[in-house]
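Q: Here's a chain of 104 amino acids. Please give me its 3D structure as tokens.
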Amino acid sequence: MEGVEAESRDEAMRSKTAFRCAKAAFLISSFKSFQNRNLRASVDEQAKEKERLRKVVGDLKIELAMERRRNKRIKLCGLMEFVLQLLLVISLSSFFLFIAFKSI
């Protein structure tokens, strides 16, 4: 049950990340073609729009980096959980083997 929830959560994160990447790519491409679209706009308006686009792209890059870090942390927690479960199984099996051989 947890595996299905984890997969659906991972799928949701991937789709969110893909959407953010597409949005960032769209903003970057619009930033590159900015001067072609705004030939009639004043220099001040162009500078403001350019700065706004830079901020948006920067914010999206930061958000993407945070999302990647969050995903790495989730994977690390999953690995630690697996290692702890493995240690528990080994400890319990050693304990029961010790009891079994001691009683013989």
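Q: Can you summarize the key feature?
A: The helical segments are 2-32, 34-37, 43-103.
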